[in-house]
Amino acid sequence: MPDSTISIAFESTDQADVMALIAALDAYQHTLYPPASVYALDLASVAQDQLLLAVARDAQGVALGCGALVLTASYAELKRMYVLPDQRGRGIAKGILAHLENAAKKSDCALMMLETGTLQPQAQRLYAQAGYLVCAAFGTYPEDEFSVFMQKQLAAAS
Question: What global pTM score does this model have?
Fold first, then answer.
C-alpha cells in the first residue's frame, strides 16, 4: 500500500488534473500499440451510476495516479489504471487496485475483469500478484495479439 502521505478517494472525472492523467495514459499507450489495439474508454461516455474513479493524491493534493471501475450486470471492469512515471514503485497502483476491488465487493460484484497490453509487463505483474488470472477476451473486446485479458473472483461482501 502507498505510504500515509498518499490518499486515495473516489472523485469526479471532470477535473483538469484527472483529465491530464488520462491524457498521459492515452499518449503512453499510443507509443506502445497500434491505434486499433488501444481500447481507451472515454469516461464521460459511461453512466455515472456505473463508474467509479479512484484518484491517488499526495499530501499537497497533486494527482499521482488513477483507476476506474465500470460496473456491469455480470462483472466489474478495471479501466484507466495509470500512475505518473516518476511516482511508480511507491505502491500507488496497488492501493488504487485495492480501493477499486473493495468498492466492487461493496457493490456485490463477484468478478473483476480487465484488459491490459502485452507490452506492459509491470501491469501484468501487478495484476498477477493481486490474484488475477489470464482469461479469454470478454465483453466487446476482440481477440488481439497485443491484449492480455485477466479476471479475479472476489469474495462476496458481508
Answer: 0.92
98-112 pLDDT tens trace: 999 999 999 999 999
Q: What is the mean pLDDT of residues 131-141?
A: 96
State the greatest distance between any 2 C-alpha atoms of the chain, in Å, as a whole number: 43
Beta strands in 2-158 (DSSP E): 7-10, 51-57, 63-71, 76-83, 111-117, 133-135, 147-153
- For residue 18, CA distances in Å to 35, 40, 81, 96, 121 come to 22, 15, 12, 14, 24
> Residue 153: what are its φ and ψ, rounded to 5°?
-80, 135
Q: Angle at CA 94, nearest 5°, toward 89 and 99?
A: 145
Beta strands in 45-146 (DSSP E): 51-57, 63-71, 76-83, 111-117, 133-135
Find all residues with CB under 8 Å of 10, minimum gap 6, and list them: 52, 53, 54, 55, 103
* Other C-beta atoms lying within 10 Å of the C-beta of residue 97: 24
